[in-house]
Amino acid sequence: MIPSVRFILLVLMAAPLFLVGAFIEAMTAIGILYVGFLALWALSDMLLATRKSRILTTRVAPVRFSLGVPTRVIVKVENSSRRTVHLRLAERLSEGMEVVREAPEVRLGPGERRQVEYRLLARRRGKYLLSQMDVRVRPKRGLFIRQFRRDLPQEIQVFPNLANVRKYEWQLRKGLAIEQGLARLRKIGQGSEFESLRLYAHGDDLGHVDWKATAKRAELLVRNYQPERQQSVLVAIDVGRATAGEFEGINRLDYLVNSTLMLAYAALRHGDWFSLVAFSDQIESYLPPVRNIKCIEQVAQALYRLEPKLTEADYAMACRFLGLKSRKRSLICLMTDVIDRQASDVMIAYMSRFARRHLPLVVTLANTEIMDAADQPLAKMTNPYRKAAALDVMTARKEALVAMRRYGVGVLDVPPKAMTPELITRYIEIKSSGRL
User: Fold this and answer.
1) CA–CA separation, 156 and 63 (whole Å)
2) Which of 76, 196, 243, 326 could cysteine-pair with 58, CB 3.0–4.6 Å?
3) May I ask the CATH class of domain 162-169+176-184+228-433?
């Protein structure tokens, strides 16, 4: 039993009565009667307190959560007692999950059923167990609060951000062209694969005129082209030390995972082959090429299991593995982080070899905290050495990225939050330009 605020205030109200009783004897008697009445009230309230068995709770939560997306959880509550009560619920959460919107206090009459809603946010991928829930029951005009713990075990799985996939599908169907960097992949008149015929319009390339069809129809017809289908996209994710840090409470690897899932969805949605490799100092997982949009579930399952390793990534081993698995010309997308030129020499050497047969693209996470420190005026900094260190890191990073571009390796260096739209936009540009 926990004393309520009402009980504490009522106890404090007895103090003035006894203070005045020091001068007026009658007030002391009134104070004694008041305390006796309050004691009887408290005793009866404790004896009539709502039992634990009279409050029924059932949690209804989705089995799958999307990383970084507040997810609705519903708790069904029922008051089978004869008293009106005020109910408050609180989840006992493990590390990596937090409550974004707490469940409000709900008033339940005798025999009444209600639903309480709140939202949970997962900061890390993986399996979680929603086990116990604290329940506080305060009767109407009651002096004590009954608190107990209810076991409601339920396992949930936190996957990469599947909500973004649905958002992309909605934008694709609605034809929204450039919102958040997402564009329609299919651009009439571009690409190298024949799609349809249409009447000639002023400004069309005469090289696209279909002369046989023109002779049959006696009208000048041109060919529409679209980006080629059934091309190959191979993503290699570095799960080593370079991607093991955090940005705004979310693991840096999770930003790479979410972007990979979106790239997989875009590729599969438009008929391309997609495969996935995750590596640290060894090959952590490999997803063979898949091509149907229904296979997005396989991609999500493969990404769901990835965890950062506190080891140095072996780029030579990973690139040799990529070479064995990518005989056909492919878009090889290496998702990692670049620290300096020396640490990236091996990666640059192998990726430059890929540039002879494939289209390599290195996707790196820009560290916005280091960028802010480097750009901050020296006069406003309390620690000038912090700016000097940030400038050294930025210079070394720039040298590594410039070296990659010099050897024909594409580079996409963006902040974590902008990675997904920028990566999809780059993929669209590559497809529509016919470079793949």
Assistant:
1) 5
2) 76
3) alpha beta
Residue extents of the structural domains in the chain? 2-47, 52-159, 162-169+176-184+228-433, 188-226
**Spatial CA neighbour of 67 closest among 322, 264, 251:** 251
Backbone angles phi, psi at 248, to 5 degrees: 55, 45
Structure tokens at 193: 């694969």
Task: Say if CB 181 and CB 424 are below 8 A apart.
Answer: yes
pTM over 0.90: no
Q: Tell me how far apart the alpha carbons of residues 436 and 292 are, in angstroms, rounded to a whole number.
A: 19
pLDDT in tens, 187-231: 444 455 556 777 877 777 777 788 888 888 888 888 776 555 678
Q: Where are the alpha helices (DSSP H) in 49-161?
A: none
Superfamily designation of domain 52-159: Immunoglobulins (2.60.40.10)
Encoded tokens for 273: 């082959």
Q: Which tokens belong to 194?
A: 């024949």
Question: Cβ(88)–Cβ(105) under 8 Å?
Answer: yes
130 three-class SS: strand
| Residue burial 109-135, b: 16+ Cβ < 10 Å; e: rest | eeeeeeebebebbbbbbeebebbebeb
Residue 370 to residue 199: CA distance in whole angstroms: 55
